[in-house]
Amino acid sequence: MNLYAVSFFGHRQIDNIFVIEQRLETIIQELLLTKEYVEFFVGRDGEFDQLVASTIRRCKRAVRDDNSALVLVLPYATAEYRNNEQSFHEYYDEIEICAESAERHFKSAHQTRNRTMVNRSDLVVFCVEHNSGGAYQTFQYAKKANANIINLPDVTR
Q1: Do the beta carbons of residue 111 and residue 137 sit within 8 Å?
Q2: With 70 as the cut, is the pLDDT of residue 157 above it?
Q3: Number of domains forming the structure of the chain
Q4: Are 153 and 125 contacting, i.e. CB atoms less than 8 angstroms apart?
Q5: By residue range, what is the domain housing residue 48?
Q6: Does 28 map to a domain?
Q7: pTM reported for the whole predicted model
Q8: Which residues, in sequence order, are CB contacts of 95 under 8 Å at separation 6+?
Q9: pLDDT in tens, 78-126
Q10: Does any domain span residue 74?
Q11: Is the residue at 10 inside a domain?
């Protein structure tokens, strides 16, 4: 089976949420229709991550749900996860604790997790509009790593 991995990163708060959601929907639907199997890697660190997860779930219901997995990648086992493990497993198809970041100091764990996700991905989708923050740092890392990148604010279709 051909596995296609996609990671998503964005600022905690996003402008033009409806425009971004439309662009996300177009990309996700296209992947579901053209790829044999897609792993969608997401975090859970802000508005963009929540938008991505809900858009993926909606597209899976509308387009097809037999060729993809919505995978939550946590930097470590958070208290929120430990206290709500059952509801997390009901929402996400899979949950991973990133081994590389779980061993790091919590202040660097998110960036380590993000870099690991970029390295595992065939496509990295960003919503980066500001030159600061973790999403921006990951965007810079992905560019240096020559990753296949889409930045949603730059998409014109």
Answers
A1: yes
A2: no
A3: 1
A4: no
A5: 35-154
A6: no
A7: 0.96
A8: 71, 72, 74, 81, 88, 89
A9: 999 999 999 999 999 999 999 999 988 888 999 999 999 999 999 999 9
A10: yes
A11: no
